[in-house]
Amino acid sequence: MTDTLKTPEEWEQLRKDRHQANLDAFNALQEDQQVAIRHAFKALSAAQDTLSECQDLWLSDIKELDRAYWQMRHSFMAVVDPENASL
């Protein structure tokens, strides 16, 4: 493939390759890390929907965002901030 993609087929193949690489990377994570990412995605999606529709954020959305944050922190702290991973 050249440096510049010219055809829709090339763009589609690039999209498929990128999707597969993301899926492979996600599947390589530990189970608790996958759960943390899924929960964070769900909480962010719900909060975004509420903000878009109501221009407000419900306490239940804030609670889920907080829970997702702590789940991500416990699952990925050693990657993000190794010096404080035991906190």
Topology of this structure?
Blueprint: H1 8-27, H2 31-54, H3 59-80
Helix pairs in contact: 2-3
What does this structure look like?
This protein has 87 residues and is mainly alpha-helical. The chain has 3 helices and no strands. It has helices spanning 8-27, 31-54, 59-80. The longest helix has 24 residues, at 31-54.
Task: Give the oligomeric state of the chains in this entry, treating copies of one chain as homo and distinct chains as hetero.
Answer: single chain
Unreliable runs, pLDDT <50, ≥5 residues? none
The whole-angstrom Rg is: 18 Å
H and E order: HHH
Give the percentage of residues in beta strands.
under 5%
Summed over residues and divided by their number, the pLDDT gives a mean of 88
Helix content: over 70%
Would you count the extended β strands for me?
0
Number of helical regions:
3
Shape annotation? flat
Structural class: mainly alpha
Report the major sheet: none
Distance between the termini: 47 Å
